[in-house]
Amino acid sequence: MWKCSFVSAASCFLFFFLVTPTIPSIEALCVDLINTTCKQCASKSIVFDYYFCLTSLQAVPVSHVTDVPGLAIIAMELALGNATATISTIENMFSGGAFDPFARQCLLDCLELYSDAVPMLEQAVAAFLEGQFDTANLFMSAVMEAAATCEVGFSEKEGEVTPLTGENYDLFELSDIALCIINLLSLGLPSVTS
Q: Could you report the per-residue pLDDT of 71-88, keeping only the tens digit for each?
């Protein structure tokens, strides 16, 4: 029988630690899953922001213990949170009253676009959960279009700067993350489904 004395306990522990293979934690595997998924999406689109994808998904604690479909849901939930918060931001901008008639009309248009985006995001999540990837894809594409339309509306007047550039960018990118993952899942790519 092999025994460790008190004096050699530390060396026995060290031996056990070095000889016993380390098993990667679930969290480490999920962080790698996030990285792999974001890389795959970035390789498929020139407008996809890999670092935005990585930091957005990693910032949500549950993303560290989920699978690829879970990452799609997280991206859609983040987009929903963004759209909802942006509606409040626009409403607060109106109460400030510091906008000329053109900018005010653009903000009204953006308010309508974001107000339409919220139910589209909810419908995208529902369709995704039911396995209707094509329907979810259509809703996410429409949400991306809403963010782009809001941004472009301000550029119709030379020199006009949109006060919603950050919000529009975030909604576009979060929707793009979800859209890419939905497309990867619908194609059944082995590297994201295994």
A: 999 999 999 999 999 999
* Residue showing tokens 């419908």: 123
- For tokens 């931001």, the residue is 89
Structure tokens at 66: 């989920």
Q: 10 with 18: CB under 8 angstroms?
A: no
Q: What is the pTM of this model?
A: 0.81
Tokens of 21: 């293979």
User: What is the Cα 35 distance to its own chain's centre?
Assistant: 12
Residue 192 is which amino acid?
V
How far apart (Å, rounded) are the C-alpha atoms in residues 106 and 93?
Answer: 12
For tokens 């020199």, the residue is 159
Tell me the domain boundaries of the chain: 25-193
Q: Are 118 and 98 in contact (CB under 8 A)?
A: no
R_g of the chain, CA atoms, integer Å: 23
**pLDDT tens across 36-48, in order?**
999 999 998 889 9
Task: Report the CATH fold assignment for 25-193.
Answer: Butyryl-CoA Dehydrogenase, subunit A; domain 3 (1.20.140)
Are the C-beta atoms of 77 and 66 separated by less than 8 Å? no
